[in-house]
From TrEMBL:
Keywords: ANK repeat, Repeat. This is Ankyrin. The keyword Repeat applies. ANK repeats lie at residues 24-56, 57-89, 90-122, 124-156, 157-189, 190-222, 223-255, 256-288, 291-323, 324-356, 425-457. It comes from Lepidopterella palustris CBS 459.81.
């Protein structure tokens, strides 16, 4: 007779406590399960040993048997009434444990005995298929898939097994899951798809696996970003090429209307822009849900002259309009990007183009809160452009005074601006300077010959405007000018 079995029989005969525990909290039944002694297991249970007594780790005999690859003991425990779906304190079942350790015989037994394939652990919400990720347990995963495990269950962070396999760079498991029909369109709670995670990580080989399994290359994240949008903004040209070869859409837009080319421009990814253009991206596509900026507008806004040059050489429309009817030149001067402004002007951008407010690029420059484009504009400025009026009859000279741009006032005057022009309300540049209590601009305007006698539609001179607003020092300056 087996010595261990004989020892158990002796304990039982002496009426020893069958629930006595070792330092780790293991009962005699747990120890029998651990070493795989079927006869001792049967004898202990038949003599009253508890099937539900946990050790200090919260494990029952079924968990211990599973962990130690004791399929024969596990089967006997099941026959004797133990639940194969019993949980540890953290919610692990025998199937979780066997799946993680790659114990095929135990997994086969549990499946045959009807163990629940989809129970979640309590802390992380992982089912047995998730446990196969730890050490690439593809054989176990195949068994669970064949038995009908749910591939779309999400863990407590909202991720599927496929997403975690992609994140963990488990290519064999990813291929197996996709071939079994796992959804590549399922998003995490933060809105990420498995493919787009692979793109973000720059995992070219994983993307190849996914595309070879038929994954749609244009799946969107929350926010509407496809893998190509992500590759574009990160400058991942190899991945972008792969996605394009897989027929990823070049025209699909995010929730705010950006195409992949928009994203590449915004992130100053010159080589990516060239790649997208070469493959047919629309260089004049508007951001459909927002301000309708086109790629050239974005390059102008950011001051990316190399990208602007690339777009222009490829045929982007230099007079394209955004939602506010601004051209790229309007945008460049509004944001103070002299290099792009110079480039656009050198290629014939229209200085007389008007936005929805009737403003030309010179109006926009004068109204902007910076003067950085003045030197770029100067060679192209004539009196004709300087004396154009917007919808409220403001000229660039009046607007420059309103913004206290004294350098522009001198430059405009030298180029033929009508310094005494008045807007719709009859206010001249001097009226505005008086209203704003700007003594330096008042001095500049008086020096340039602006008349202090001009009156507005209410008959008020600039001096009157200053006094009405309590700007007495400026009023005296005008009176003495």
């Amino acid at each position: 007779m087996d010595r261990k079995l004989a020892a158990v029989q002796k304990l039982i005969k002496r009426r020893a406590n069958l629930q006595a525990k070792t330092n780790n909290g293991n009962t005699p039944l747990a120890l029998a399960a651990q070493i795989g002694n079927v006869e001792a297991t049967v004898l202990l249970v038949n003599s009253g040993a508890s099937l539900t007594e946990a050790n200090d780790s919260g494990w029952l005999p079924v968990h211990i048997a599973a962990s130690n690859d004791r399929a024969n003991v596990l089967e006997e425990l099941s026959r004797l009434g133990a639940s194969l779906d019993a949980r540890t304190e953290k919610g692990f079942t025998a199937l979780h444990i066997a799946a993680e350790k790659g114990l095929n015989d135990v997994v086969d037994l549990l499946i045959r005995k009807g163990a629940n394939l989809n129970l979640k652990t309590t802390e992380t919400g992982r089912t047995p298929i998730f446990q196969t990720l730890f050490d690439n347990r593809t054989e176990v995963l195949s068994r669970l898939i064949k038995a009908g495990a749910d591939l779309e269950i999400k863990n407590n962070l909202g991720a599927t097994c496929l997403y975690l396999a992609v994140e963990g760079k488990k290519e064999a498991i990813v291929r197996l899951l996709l071939q079994a029909g796992a959804s590549a369109a399922s998003l995490t709670s933060t809105g990420w798809s498995p493919l787009n995670k692979a793109v973000w990580d720059g995992n070219l080989s994983m993307i190849k696996v996914m595309l070879s399994c038929g994954v749609n290359p244009s799946i969107k994240n929350k926010g509407g970003h496809t893998g190509l949008h992500i590759a574009a903004e990160k400058g991942l040209t190899d991945i972008a090429n792969l996605l394009i070869e897989g027929r990823a859409s070049l025209s699909m837009v995010t929730d705010i209307g950006n195409t992949p080319l928009h994203r590449a421009v915004l992130e100053n990814q010159l080589e990516m822009c060239k790649l997208l253009i070469l493959n047919g991206a629309d260089m004049n596509a508007a951001q459909v849900h927002t301000s309708a900026f086109r790629p050239l507008h974005l390059a102008a806004e950011r001051g990316f002259d190399n990208i602007a040059q690339t777009l222009l050489l490829a045929g982007a429309w230099i007079e394209s309009r955004n939602k506010f009817e601004e051209t790229p030149l309007h945008v460049a001067v509004r944001f103070g990007k002299p290099n792009v402004a110079q480039l656009l002007l050198s290629r014939g951008a229209d200085m007389a183009a008007r936005d929805v407010n009737g403003s030309t690029p010179l109006h926009t420059f004068a109204r902007a809160d910076n003067s950085r484009c003045l030197s770029s504009l100067m060679p192209y400025i004539t009196g004709y452009f300087l004396n154009q009026r917007d919808v409220v009859k403001m000229t660039p000279f009046i607007l420059a005074a309103y913004q206290c741009k004294n350098d522009a006032l001198f430059a405009f005057s030298n180029k033929g601006a009508d310094v005494n022009a008045s807007a719709m309300d009859g206010w001249t540049a001097l009226h505005w300077a008086a209203h704003k209590n700007d003594g330096e601009t008042v001095k500049t305007l008086l020096f340039l010959g602006v008349s202090k006698w001009r009156t507005d539609e209410n008959g008020r001179k600039a001096e009157d405007v200053a006094r009405a607003n309590g700007h007495y020092a400026v009023a005296r300056m005008i009176a003495n000018g």
